[in-house]
Design brief:
The protein contains six helices and eight strands. The protein has two domains: 88 residues, Dimeric alpha+beta barrel (Alpha-Beta Plaits, 2-Layer Sandwich), CATH 3.30.70.1060; 87 residues, Dimeric alpha+beta barrel (Alpha-Beta Plaits). It starts with a strand and ends in a 12-residue tail after the last strand. By secondary structure, it is α+β, with helices and mostly antiparallel strands.
């Protein structure tokens, strides 16, 4: 089962917690390499500061996802907290190994939660949304709906895009019909980059 897992960093002056736990963190990520679609830090939209981390990962069930977070060295070491875990469905077949991207581009993560009771609105906007997706398909590294706990209901959207810069990312989002149509109650728009374990353009 696929999960979207988001964690936030605590304030870490000088990066002491990150430095102390980095090697264990990287080894931990590497041990899940075969189950990870994407993993890397979330950033401010200008990509100048790390805010936490986000991964898309295949795990057995929610209990397994929670255990995965609990054993993360950045969590046990005190750097990260506040896990948000959602079942997720991939709408394209890519992972970090083969996703469309251009070397030198910037990546952005959009994590959006629907307004309560908006199933009909999502359905009403779907055709326009899918037409827009087809027009910008080359920008997606991955995309798909966030799901309810039983997997039976779409409750949001998650997208990772690869674009030249922040202006291009915002133009992409300004054209998204789910966004312009008022579907979302909460939108988190982050800079993002590949974690060093999961970037095929860089040596580990």
């Amino acid at each position: 089962m696929l999960f979207a897992v988001k964690l936030f960093d605590r304030d870490d002056p000088g990066g002491a917690l990150r430095d102390a736990n980095r090697d264990e963190h990287l080894a931990y990520l590497d041990s899940f390499e075969d189950r990870t679609l994407f993993a890397g830090p979330i950033l401010t939209d200008d990509r100048t500061k790390e805010l936490g981390s986000h991964r898309l990962i295949d795990l057995k069930d929610r209990a397994d996802a929670e255990a995965h977070v609990a054993d993360e060295p950045y969590v046990t070491g005190g750097l990260q907290y506040g896990a948000e875990i959602h079942p997720w469905s991939a709408s394209v077949p890519y992972s970090w190994r083969d996703c469309p991207r251009a070397e030198g581009n910037a990546q952005f993560l959009i994590h959006a939660i629907d307004k309560p009771g908006s199933d009909q609105l999502r359905d009403d906007l779907r055709a326009e949304h899918e037409a827009y997706q087809a027009s910008v398909e080359h920008l997606y590294m991955t995309r798909g709906p966030l799901l309810s706990e039983d997997g039976g209901q779409q409750i949001g959207s998650l997208m990772l895009i690869d674009v030249p810069d922040l202006a291009a990312a915002k133009a992409f989002w300004d054209g998204e019909p789910f966004h312009t149509g008022g579907l979302f109650e909460r939108v988190e728009f982050y800079g993002w980059r590949f974690g060093r374990v999961f970037d095929r353009f860089k040596p580990r």
